[in-house]
Amino acid sequence: MPNPFAELFKYLKLGEGLAYVHRMPADPNYRTTIETFIRNRGANFLKMTQAILASPSHPYAQLFQGAGCTYADLEAEIGRNGLEATLDRLLAEGVYLTLDEFRCNTEIVRGGRHIRATMADWDNAAGKGPLQNFSSGSSGAKSLKTNSSLEYVKFGSAGGRILLDEFQNVRRVAITMMPILPGSHGLGGCLVGAKLGYPSERWFALGGGSKFKNAHYKAMTAAIVARLRLEGANVPYPTYLDPDDFSPVAEFVAKRKREGMSSAIMGMVSSITRVAAAAIDGGFDIRGTYALVTGESLTDAKRDLIERSGIEPYPMYATSEFGGIGIPCRQMRTGNCVHVTLPSLALVSRRQESWNDEEVDSLHITNLLSFAPRMLINVEIGDTGVIEPATCDCEFSRLGYSLQVRDMAAITKFRGQGYTLRAPELIRLLEEGLAQQFGGRPGDYQLLEVEGKAQTEMVLRIHPRIAVTSSEKVLEYFLAQCRSTYGGSLTILHWTESNCVRVEVKPPILAASGKFRAIRLLGSGIRRSGPAVEKNAAPVVAAKSEST
């Protein structure tokens, strides 16, 4: 159980940080700011690495030493071949971090050299500030805390202004559809929209199924909203959705359309697909609605359903560990494609095997901002994607956002419904925890991510040879254990409230080679060739909505 006093202090700090953001002056020269950072990308990277290499004991400095790369070598390479080509070469020479190495869950080993590191090694003192944020989940030991500077937030707002320039040819009703605490995405999204002159008229959130459910999170969310409103911020209180019922959102959008106003919704991909399905099923006219979607892959199936309802979806690419990575323009109307946010980062890839035994392009991120919270050089994101030149004529391309990334999908972490659970922790639960609790051995329990009719679904498969007396008890135990992992609290809340997890008593799905994987991401958006695998079996036991 988290310490209630520590929880209170944590969210008071979050509220104080958001109040700072509200008081922060806007950048009147935001376009010039963005152009300057794009023009100086190589120089900004060299400035960061120069500070790192000045400390030979730093883990990154040791990686550069192992690769035989000095600052002079780096400077010359960037001058000859450019930043991305230099990072590609560094990646090949071992200057990178896997996601587990970045989170210090595994030791860094290169060429027989063991490099010790802590999460504090990636912190950037120049990027520390009053805005404190925690990755999804409760206050468990593995929750990732980030302290951001006002300069970093101000820079992000400049990118938000460019997005508004690209999309705001017609005034629309802004709607936020994000969770309440313990995640800060809902609060942050509402506040940033208000600062940009585009406040949310409604904030729809899951987690309000009963008067007492998640009462502590609801109370803290309300307290922070009240604090922001006293500061003059135009931030709405959450409107809670009942479990598995997204029709109030579709009904509200249809009502505003009848009154002459189209809407723009910001939300998780699967949440937006549920709104689209509710609009179709309820006969609500929501044509002309925009949706900025995030949190998971915008697969072809989800895009088709969303578009059939009359919503135009545009994907955003961001993660809790690394922030914003990609941003869409209005011409990105097919697939799952975004402009790489080149002013603040570089993105390269290397071939590696995914959890589905497929060779994919694993994305690695490098931070270029001296005032960012963390120093990142070729850090594995945990996703695949295809990086290529951007050919569209839009606000971003005209400013120099010359690269795009498409077909993003998770490959080393489980991101069902946009909430991250680390694959190693899930595998231990599937191969050890469930077997110890209910019998069986590794290979008898499998977690699938599949494309459902209107959202991503999670299926816990139990091999028929296991004499389980109650599939429901297996599911309850599985969810309870997930709740205690990094990201688990918020994840399980969303899974249960959206009714997207179920149990099947069936043999596991195997790879074409016959190999078993405890986790199979069948709905992740990875482009595949070959025969389709089994999907969408009828549910046996649906998850019950529970308090976190």
Describe this entry's structure for a reader.
The chain has 548 residues and is of the alpha/beta class. The chain has a domain at 418-542: GMP Synthetase, Chain A, domain 3 (2-Layer Sandwich), CATH 3.30.300. Helices cover 37% and strands 22% of the residues. It is built from 17 helices and 24 strands. It has a seven-stranded antiparallel β-sheet. The chain is globular, with a radius of gyration of 23 Å. The N and C termini lie close together (11 Å). Residues 136-141 and 529-548 have low confidence and may be disordered.
Task: Quickly describe the structure.
This protein is an alpha/beta fold and 548 residues long. The protein is built from 17 helices and 24 strands.
